[in-house]
């Protein structure tokens, strides 16, 4: 018995017209919307179109960007993650207590930050384990983990707010490089890292594939459970970093450091073109979504809308964006839970 | 069936242990014996056709061969060595791979990733992708089958035929795991292909034979005979024989598939009681169009059973659902007993006296954890209520009556329906439309799927009796024989259109081949 | 219609299966948990098992019971309502703002408006086919925003206490009126589910929405109804909160979301839909309340409360989940 060596020698390597590889209209929509929204606010408000405000927008987007990158990997799998507020709270308090602060004599600097991020990754891992081992749907598992994180934060908080005195961490928020705060550069680094993970790592590609057709992966002999846990862990680490960033902005560790970020991040990801059913979207989509959400909130404030409306506007656009994605595919006897 | 390892001559004149041998494979499902001692031999460099009716056990056998189903008894031998297959990976390690009927590709990955999925080898080092290596690996696979697909194209941007090539290329990756020639199983590969694409596929199959063994499953006998060296036939979970493809006639195969001519007697139970006079037109469909069907005209008379036949993708299932309001329509009009039918939703259809039995009984037909009684009265709630309130006594009487009338075997009316056998479940689902006695049109989508012979004949008898009482029935049958046996008239659908209508009165039934000619 | 009579009996025997130990245990879980908790707390602090502290406990539990009861119907339909707490907060603000103008009608108006807002979410869910947790997550955000804007982000005192005075009364001197109202809500909704076809529809939708639709059940209507009830219950809970706190505030009920979800799942209602009841949520809400008041008694800092909620939500969902239904858990 011989192997297929001679099976195919005479076939001429003719290239047929290339099938679609690049950008579709669906992918182009959010960037166009970003430009349009930016243009409208620039026309409406003189305060909006200043260079310093553009800096403001980018700086304001930093924390949300990091959270959104984390959640994007989870959404790509078709799961959902509501644990950002709890994990960010836990990491914010942890880092505030580990770097130089007014509560204790710790001065761990970078190590403190690393510990906070690791703790956050551990909490994320917990969500993943609850999902794959206990088979608890992710929205419930992460709701639970968020509560655990908030509880941890409250325990560590112990009634006295830890104000940080670490010059490096404080500097992240105020010192600028090329006109942008260090936090913004960190966020940009995270975008790059996230993109690389999504494009070049098995973890990122499998997360994408899990959202596309999980059962096929199993059929092909891929064990998806470890990848799911890894994705939630990775997301947790990003939330942890975001918690550290909030602590840097506030110069203090707060239990509520992550309040509302879960929803804002889902909004940003969905607006950027990530489908909640998974398998579509990605880090760059989400980054555009983050900018879109931030420009919108900033612009509304600039034109005189109460900042309290921020959450409301996000609520409306997320419902609209999800509906826009779902409506073309809806069928009569479709199940929506 | 021989169990001799050194089986006969192989095409090419060499003698070797068979590439794959199955001995006495048995698999039970609750209420059904899917495999009842199947024997099968696949020689090296041979294309073996596998033919059989729906429910003959083909798909269970294939699943057992790639480790998706664990048989209750029997043995699988690969190249003279007994193997136990626990997973697809196990099967691949032994050189067995399957091209699935519903394609098993991840749509949002590139073709290259799909081809190497799960066995990336040097394509992924320490969790990091090497796209160039990946592409090269995939290209090697595609070259084996002479396909010119761009390996970096997203899979969902490829045509169905191209995706099938990707799938074959993917299955051929199992060569990397064994030093032996693989056995490739193709499950109904032609069902959605156009004739030109089928030709390409056949070329591929002949090319595969050069270095692999192939099991080719199809319900189109002409195809099977065209591309295979030998054809094995399954019926009722048993191997009933095999013939060399050369010189065999489809009719001969067909007789083996459906068994002795007497076996379809059960279709005719109760036939005599039926009046031959056609009733008035009950359902009149004019120019109905929807997502997967176009411009369909259809007429069903009271007391008539009309079978709709067609291959996968003919649109008959969606047409059926559209008549029940469960699928959107874009044009056309439907009348029931001369009145315009409201197609806006299932509720309107129920109110108009239409009943629907979906093909997916477990997920769409019944609510598994709910009781027999509640399932039976789910639609016609007024039958168990007085005013707005449920009367448990009224419900009990009604349900018990129907349990008795249809001889539904259940410990109690309060038993969860999921604990009943398939046939009894289906009778409860049917009873749902009968309890209030106002059903005028029944739409039956594969009403006997997954049922054993006894349960089937009961469903057939019930259908006859309902027709006899004046109910119009649209039947999407499980097999051509069922359609022919049960229907008074058969409508052939192809590509979303109703193309032909064939009368099938008792005494003047068409043959399955007559229908097949019209279907393709 | 003739009467088909089939003489031949079915050839296949029914497959009989008994409930597993796990299923039996989970079906009694809320009651067992309640008894164990009560016993444990009494052992630790014999002073706990007195009329006055039990009365205080059920009085605290009342708004939670009402919130959980409404959302239970949504969960029974297979959905989830994450907006109940935010809607409840918004309703307290509405109450404080409208009381001077509407007087005695305020309570009715609040329940009606909250119900209408819930219905709106239901309509968005069924018409736009958006998953319920996204609609209600969006709703949560929107309601919080509205509450913040109209209250100017601060509490609004309620000076006219006469309107809500009845809720602070005690029936027979011991049973708080608020808790009696909560019991009435649970009883009435349970009776409607039991005595009318609605109960069948809700369970069918929860277990298998497509089977329910193909059986001609009014799926969309029932779902909108469930969200309406959930909203109305959030409104009623708001009135209870105002009667206790004498003010409306845009964040007053926000911390009730987790306890309410916990109450539902601890009660044993499956998050996958179909299986469960309002009585279970009542027991679940009492368990959650006992945990909350009991922690300080056994000497655990109240900061552990949140961790406990998280853990019991995950554990209870894991125990009650209908795994046969979801092959792939996302």
TrEMBL record, chain A:
Major site of localization recorded for this protein: membrane
Keywords: Cell membrane, Membrane, Transmembrane, Transmembrane helix
UniProt KW Ribosomal protein keyword: no
Span list, region Disordered: 1-24
TM annotation in the entry: 28-45, 57-76, 82-101, 108-133, 139-157, 177-197, 229-248, 260-276, 283-301, 307-327
Cellular compartment(s): Cell membrane
Gene Ontology MF annotations: transmembrane transporter activity
Gene Ontology cellular-component annotations: plasma membrane
Domain of life: Bacteria
Membrane topology reported for the UniProt record: Multi-pass membrane protein
Pfam families, A to Z: BPD_transp_2 (PF02653)
UniProt-listed PANTHER family: ABC TRANSPORTER PERMEASE PROTEIN YPHD-RELATED-RELATED (PTHR32196), RIBOSE IMPORT PERMEASE PROTEIN RBSC (PTHR32196:SF72)
Name listed for the protein in its UniProt record: Ribose transport system permease protein
Species for this entry: Promicromonospora thailandica
TrEMBL record, chain B:
One GO MF term: ATP binding
Keyword Nucleus: no
Coiled coil: none
Protein keywords: ATP-binding, Nucleotide-binding, Repeat, Transport
Protein name as catalogued: Ribose transport system ATP-binding protein
Residue ranges of the TM segments: none
SMART domains to which the protein is assigned, alphabetical: AAA
Domain ABC transporter: 20-261, 273-520
Matches recorded under SUPFAM superfamilies: P-loop containing nucleoside triphosphate hydrolases
TrEMBL record, chain C:
Keywords: Cell membrane, Membrane, Transmembrane, Transmembrane helix
Organism, scientific name: Promicromonospora thailandica
Bilayer disposition of the protein: Multi-pass membrane protein
Annotated TM spans: 28-51, 63-96, 102-120, 132-150, 170-193, 221-244, 256-274, 281-300, 306-322
Keyword field contains Manganese: no
Protein name (record): Ribose transport system permease protein
Subcellular location: Cell membrane
GO MF term list: transmembrane transporter activity
GO cellular component, one term: plasma membrane
